[in-house]
Amino acid sequence: MDNMRSYNLSVFPYSRDPAKSGGNPTTIFLNAEGLDDLQMQALAKESGHECGFVLSGDAGWQDGCQFTMRYWVPNHEMEMCGHATVGAIWLMDQLGKLPSTDGLLLSTRSGKVEARVLKDESTSTSRVLVSQPAGSCENLSGDIVQEIVSCLGIATGDLAPLSKVQNACTSRTKTLIPLKSQAILNNLKPDFDLLRDICEKINSTGFYPYAFIDNKDQIVDARQFPKSVGYVEDPATGIAAAALAFGLLSDKSVSSDVKRPILVRQGWSMGKPSQIEVQFRGTNEDIEGCWISGNVKWAEE
């Protein structure tokens, strides 16, 4: 491959229209073998958002992978980043740098990740699917729930009935907080110092409050408040959306039908409308994990 180059993308925008805002920015660095940890973190700090670094498969932690991926935010390295992975595979497909194979295996600190590229010849577009393992979910105690509610500046009565506040995890643990309405979601005013302290106490990497837009069509609105990455809110979080899908499955809020996607909208209250598609993998009776996917577009250099 050639010398290292960087590319700016917007991943999971609701619209592919380059004139419209939306999506989560990422900078992808190809051929990043020559960078050490300090250099990767410095580049993430300079960008102000998540960055994905693509290295050869031989540079990774697992055998049999075509590529290795590392992920940095301004404050630290992450084991896995959904939107940077989707963006990196989309980018390499656009540049003709992917091997001719139906599926790709990526080596990450969170384990092997599978990626697929689906071509739509009628629209000349590509859609990238990235795998996540089956999620685990844990209901949180009433005392912790009260702390979370106070941190968000809402009342217990603002929580959605019949749904639980949970820690859920595929690659990273997120705290899922079901709310009665989008209005409550959009008006949240977290105490970020308290949020960080609660996340430390419950081993979570961030709060993911959400509200259903359409139960029948499985459309959910969400916001992501990370514990400590260098900014206070994220416009589109693939790993959190995957965790949410398994939280919703655990309390029977969504179908286990592997052909029915869950659409997670995020970033709308930030003026960055985004949408992440999550689809379960396996069979309806035996869910093995999920796929995350969504739109990608070029961002300004």
TrEMBL record:
Transmembrane segments: none annotated. The keyword Ribosomal protein does not apply. GO terms for cellular component: cytoplasm. InterPro entries: Phenazine_PhzF-like (IPR003719). The active site is at 50. It comes from the Eukaryota. Keywords: Isomerase. GO terms for molecular function: isomerase activity. PANTHER family: BIOSYNTHESIS PROTEIN, PUTATIVE-RELATED, PHENAZINE BIOSYNTHESIS PROTEIN. NCBIfam families: PhzF_family. This is Uncharacterized protein. It comes from Penicillium atrosanguineum. The lineage of its organism: Eukaryota, Fungi, Dikarya, Ascomycota, Pezizomycotina.
